[in-house]
Structures
1.
Amino acid sequence: MELVLAAAIGILAASGVWLLLRPRTFQVIIGLTLISYAVNLFIFSIGGLRTGADPVLRDAAGDIAQYTDPLPQALVLTAIVIGFATTALFLVVLLTSRGLTGNDHVDGEDGSA
Amino acid sequence: MPDAILPSTILALPFVAAVLAWLLRSRGRNLAVWLMTGTALLGLLLALWLYPAITGGGALRQLIPWAPGLGLDLVLRVDGFAWLFMLLICGIGALVGIYARYYMPADDPLARFFALLLAFMGSMLGIVMSGNVLQLVFFWELTSLFSFLLIGYWHHGASARDGARMALVVTSGGGLCLLAGVLLLGHIVGSYDLDVILAAGDAVRAHALYLPTLLLILLGAFTKSAQFPFHFWLPQAMSAPTPVSAYLHSATMVKAGVFLLVRFWPVLGGTDAWFWIVGGTGLLTLVLGAYAAMFEQDLKGVLAYSTISHLGLITMLVGLGSALGVVAAIFHIVNHATFKASLFMAAGAVDHEAGTRDLRKLGGLRRFMPVTATLALIAGAAMAGVPLLNGFLSKEMFFAETLASRNGPLLDVLSVVIAVAASAFGVTYSIRFVRGVFFGRVPATLPREPHEPPLWMRVPIGLLALACLLVGVLPARVIGPSLRAAASAVLGAGQLPPYSLAVWHGVTTPLLMSVLAFGAGCLLFVSLRRCFATLEAAPLTGRFSGKRIFERVMAVVAADLPQRIERRYPSRRLQPQLLLIVLLALVAGTLAATSAPFGFQPRWSSVDPAFALLWLLGAACAIGAASQAKFHRLAALVLTGGAGLVSCVSFVWLSAPDLAATQLLVEVVTTILILLGLRWLPKRIEGLAAESRTHRFRRRRDMVIATAVGLGVASLAYAAMMHPVADSISRFFLERAYTEGGGHNVVNVILVDFRGFDTLGEISVLAIVALTVFALLRRFRPAAESINAPAQQRLQTALGASGPGRAADHSLTDYLMIPGLIIQLMAPVIVLFGLHLFLRGHDLPGGGFVAGITVSVALILLYMARGARWVEAHLRVLPVRWIGLGLLLAAGTGLGSLAFGRPFLTSYFRHVELPVLGELPLASAVLFDLGVFVVVVGATTLMLIALAHQSLRRPRQAPATAAEGEG
């Protein structure tokens, strides 16, 4: 479980970083999205992985240990929403930059690909 | 009203009045004046009411707890010294308010002016009433800020802007030093409470950190009180409206520095370092200021340098280190405030009536404005130190102090000589000021026909001049008790040295010194009269302009240096910078990983084949997206969505249904958003130059970096996951989610209750981002080639319009006929589902975030199926208002708890029996979650719609935009 998830986080991060270093704005935005997946999974996994644990309290509150760790979940939940907002902002910035400079290079000038 | 809450009332009054005055805006010029004068007078009355509490060295304390655990409370402390300052601040504030009403141009609504003046008054009161030194620094910086805004009040003038900036840089820079000094002081004493610090003088002076503490605090005081070599900002600040100069830059704000010196004298004073630095700086400032004042041509310039000189005198008195010196310093603070404020007002009246402040262009105005001339004569005489006026008394005390100091023969003689010389200079510039303006011939070139200023401009000058006279004639009666209260507050009740406030002490050495100074001053004036009229700057010192040095330093620090760094920096371009950042992170990560051992044995985890298969798919999607993003954007987007879905499934797998739902919905919205944006991106240019060697090299290099990052992140994640989890605060949340938050869904309870403040911040970010997106798109200019509708759309529109009785947009309805109908029917169901998610959020997976995105998905589906025009004709879509409403709701719920005497965002819940629905848990956190919900709906919808509208409005505006683009 952990090994698979760790590898997955690594692959997501690697793909994201590779795209981050590309010259085209669209590549960078996709890269950032992939990196945000990796980071969200990473934060989520910090509390340890649990399958089949209760995410919601039962009325007869029994042992605390039977529940999942709610804290990383709360952190990641807002991170997902904020991630959407920043993606939107970056998308609009790149569209504006494309309109102003006439190309979609991150440096605003189409020197090299 | 009980005395105990009076201090906070006095402090709060000006700030409340400032807000009120600001709200007046353009209405009610007179109302703003009443607000200013009324507040100041009320403050004065309340302060006078406090008098019994502070006589005899006592202090009134008021403590308002804020963060007691950190030792941070709002402590207000009024002792005799603070009380005297309060009288000055409120009294002169009231007079300045009246004066400004008639001085300021008639077409200025003045609301902003008085709001700033009131806020300044509050900040100044805050300095003198602070019982906590950090709080004092806070108000100290506030006065710098308001002084900046007031100097730059007429911001259309370049000199006002420059003067304001210089004052801000110097005084707030000093304020930072003061903060550092105060922190050191707090470190030495172990408390920031003023009373504790004042009692710990011996410990502070003996401490190893005494000297740095002293230097830092002195830097703060000297910059504020315009002491050499930081004096240059004060003459530049004279571009402020004259009431501001009278109030801030002579009577109150510049006194904050000497206030601090006197305040900390029992703690820091009495050492050699104190004597040399404070005394020496005071002496230099005293003589240089007086010298420069003689040669100024600008009326306010004379007064500014004279203020510098008098502040130097006060500093020197404190620096001499005797108790009597402190008494004299306090006395002179009051005297200088009265005569200098009235002189500034007189100078303003002259400027107002004659149209110039240039001493070379003025003369003989006594014939036109006899009352003002008389009043200015009295105040000017007080400044020169003429007997029977208050300036004379404190100067006598000053001379007596210089005579009494015993620091070696050379120094004693030197200080006496310099004191007499500076005093003579003071006589000279006072004569020059009064004679040059009001006596002599009337120049033919006066810009305006002068006449007496309005009555209410003369009254404040008159009252201040009267105060000079009263203190000068009957000092023991008028100022004696207040001075005693102030001095005993600083020195301790029993430590008051014997001093006598009398006009006539017999023929004493100080009197002879006064006479000498007077004679020398008159002689100097007569002999230098011709020079004054012709010289542009003071001889000798005029060449060293603090202003020029300041400007040169600023040019280096704020322009040259950054430019040089920027040029040296590897690149201005984003791509290499990103590379650098990633490399830096990689290096830092490697260093951290190699230097700090994990401290546990790595072990293999079990591998679930199904999960592994799932992530095989996910990894393929991620790598596919990475490889396709350049030329096949749609494919890359779909693949990214695939990776997102896989991580969504993982969330379900790993017992996080809330996350899965949110991730899924956000995935949908993000995809729609990027799809909307794809249309504006450029097409692939076929047959561009073949891939060169450098490109190949870069790709390989980036591949290596990306692989390294991936490996690093993966091993870090693995290490973190395998690390035994220590007992975290999650336990706290699990145990109390139901008992204190009233909900079963712990994640939601954390978001809306335990960490509600964070969530409030997050929805604010969301709102700000949405508004930024909206604002950016309002001015959006697409590239020329993407302005026209896409080929497919054009074709369809043409086809759709070709039949009989059909309009252009009929193609759309045809095209999406069945999906459109289904979506239209489903939209209410989706909205209902969203509401369901919202309502159950506190107990089951769901909540404001998910529900909000669901509802906005319903809306955007409608947009897609029916077109923007149809939706907006049938629904009122007002996302900006929704955002505002949601923020208000969330913040309002938080504030609601204040009404019940609980801290911000405290939640409350109970189970309510409702008809039909049965028992419902109702928590105030649900209202907060509703706010979150509304903000999320508004923000998401706003972003999507703003982008979608671009395609709608462009075709209509295309010709105009194209023309603009070419121009």
2.
Amino acid sequence: MYLRYFLTVCAILTVTFGWSQDCNYTLSGKVLDFHDKKPLAGATLYIARLDSYAYTDLNGTYSFKNLCVGTYEVEVMHPECRTLIFPVEIKGRTKEDFLLEHHLEELDEVRVIGSIYADKTNSGLESRLSEKALLQNSGTSLGDAIKGLSGISSLNTGATIVKPAIHGLNGSRVLVLNDGVRMQDMEWGDEHAPNVDINAAGSITVIKGASALQYGGDAIGGVILMEQAFLPGTDTLYGKTVLNGFSNGRGGSISTDLTKVFRNDGFIRLQGSFKRLGDQESPDYILSNTGVSEKATTLEFGKRTLNWGIQGKYSFYDAEIAILRASHIGNIDDLIRSINSGEPEIIRPFTYDLQNPRQQVTHHLGKISAYKRFKGLGKWSAQYDFQQNRRKEYDVRRGELNDQASLDLELTTHSFSTDFKWDAAEKLDWTTGLMGRYQENFPNPATGVRRLIPDYERLELGAFVTGEYAFTPQWKLDAGLRYDFSRIDALKYYQTSRWEERGYDNEFSGIVLEDLGSQLLTNPVFTFKNFSGTTGVNYSSNNTTFLRFNYSLAQRAPNPSELFSDGLHHSAARIELGDLRIKSETSHKISASFERRLQNWGFTLEPYANFLTNFILLEPTGLEFTIRGAFPVWSYRQTDARLLGIDASAYANWHRNWRTEHQVSLVKGKDLSQDLALINMPPVNFRNKLDFLQKEWHDFEISLISDLVLRQNEVPPNIVVFSPEQQEDVVLEINTPPPAYHLLGLSSSADFSLGTSSRLTTSLTVSNLLNSSFRDYLNRQRFFADGLGRNIQLQFIIHY
Amino acid sequence: MKNIKSLLYLSIGFLTITSCSDDDPAPEPINEEEIITTFTATLVPQGGGTTITLQTRDLDGDGPNPPVVTVSDDLMPNSIYDGTIVLLNETETPAENITDEVEAEDEEHQFFYTVGGGLNANVEYANFDGNGNPLGTAFTLTTTASSSGTLAFTLRHEPTKPNSGLADAGGETDLAVTFSVTIQ
């Protein structure tokens, strides 16, 4: 579709008239690929002044006859290249070669829309969210938007904090790349969702594994790539506005963007979103204090030409998220009571107010990037980015403290990266790059609560080389290597009692700076050196059969939470303890994909196996007593683990108007050292979709979607705790999975044209159509309340 | 290639600048402002006799050390005691009296008393919030025949008021302490 746009937009020709009487000259030469100087056959050349066409032959050769002396503008077009206009001076028999950008990266995107795979890696498993699905999810979050893709699940805290998980892994194991910037937004916490606005993305691709080394060597789960929409043509002004209304939460969202591309390839883009929801509702009751308020804006400008480009960007994200009041609890007895009662303890009338407990996060992101292409060599890119993430978490507290955040962290990150892509050779493309990053965390002491994450500075350096070699047009091999160095230098206070209980007084006595009696000031400094690598092969035949096989080695340094966590989590009524002894974890992942894509049907099978050594996990290890009562202690521990899974999907076009899609994901996680199931693994889930399409009725489409989530039968055992209230040992059913559930959804849309250049898309989506009560194993609030009831979403999208 | 070189210099320069900032001053220590470290119930027998104190003290808060529980003496049978509760945060110097905060927010707090294990005693509320619902930082304890068992105190923040006891009070537990007590 973009391609057509291209060709039509590039039609304006300005012609500078020369002056001559003699009109017997010729213009001839070749049209060549900019990178490897390969001749381009089938290119069209057009001189508007004469309304004269020429075409290149197999050798890329063209010629025009009967030209006069003077300057002509020649428009050169090729189906796989961006159309360019070259001024040519004719002084006699003139020879001129034209270079076209054959690899234009944006065109990759054009090619894959509507297909299952994108070309971010050669042999890794990937899924791409369709543009339509992205727009439909405009009022939700990144995690919700990609959840419909096979192999993607999420760890939720309520309905609004959605942490994406890839092949069962989340948090620091999933990198989020926001327009080339690796998000640094405290992804270590279970109740921290990515601080991004999905409306700022033009496309979202998920790479399931660590096969894209250019983004980082520690993507043990995978990479989520949010990319900017492609800039079409020149001299255009376009944009869109998306309006959403939601019945559940009684609110809505608006998002709008406007892009201007100038004649000289300069551009400016402005985007903004706002979302507001009040308390959401389960089928039977109001989920008190689950409202959300979200604001985001992006400004982007720059210039992109064939040879070089430079651009700047600033984006701001601000979210305030209320957390279910009933999920804030005091001790283990409160938790037992919540689990047993089956209904939240606090149900109040609906309100838009965001009360405690709540989170308030802001994220600033600025970047400057540039690229330059070198003829016959490749493309050099460089980028500097700055991020500042401020997170405040408010608990229910006594008196004036209620207005004071219990957690207040400010994370500042500077990153610099550069790479060079050598794409001149016909069969071999390779890229090499360097990365440097400096990060600083400042926990505000004004909270009056001991710091959960300490003051620290972290320095990271990385270098990588990746390459792709095309043996034949069908077989492509890829390989890559990456080295990462990271050093974290922290200043942390430990309670003396905790320091001794952990046994640090023997092992780490050297890092104590000051002894304040009940607390110790320490200076832990750790260095991690990690290697990662990937290799794989891709076979594609006739655009119908695709085979991929990939092996990836990834290593991840522990995050600050895994090293330093030390304190009580009210949201989970547990004491979480990091461990200074934690080392990097290593993953060996083998994945394969077999895909058939035919006219009327197709399927994809994606099995994978992930072998993890020193896998870092958080699990219940004991019980501690305080004056508030008893709390289970969850400690970070390292073990060997194995994840085995398969994602399968299929589609069939039964009739001109009828289509079905089917999807199933299964993953099994096992702690090999203890022979136990891993916690928080997504249960088997099926998604089936029935589509009815009628192009003649304004592109009318209606779909019925069924989501079946089975019970997760493989969970770690529950723990036995002493209940002070009951004065006896009781089983804390913290790992008991909720039963299977089935949700139906309905979605319909139609397109209307508004004049010549505007278009309106309307859609009506109903999720949880039957208003079924359910609890999801991967929702941390399943102990307190049911999931969301029916939600009717009305959407208007105006393109202009 | 010139670009690459200058970029390399730039990045090296950048990294050296940013990695030299190790001389930050030490962060200030935080003493938990909210924590209750010490619970003391003082029982004064009506008509004279030995004052009994029940105390739980956990100076490391949510640290690993369990609270230290002390009961000064046995209770007398067939007696009425006037009880008062004092909550302290002893991580601060001087210790902060948290009872004052609780009493200032009396409508959002309530103590609950649980007599268990065959102890022949009964506890009644002796102070109330602005709406006339129980608060319970003051109470009366009545003992009957000699026996032994447990006496537990629970403080709930934002309970449902009025309520018929712990079971339907809701809210979150700020404090839950249990004492082994003997009447003889």
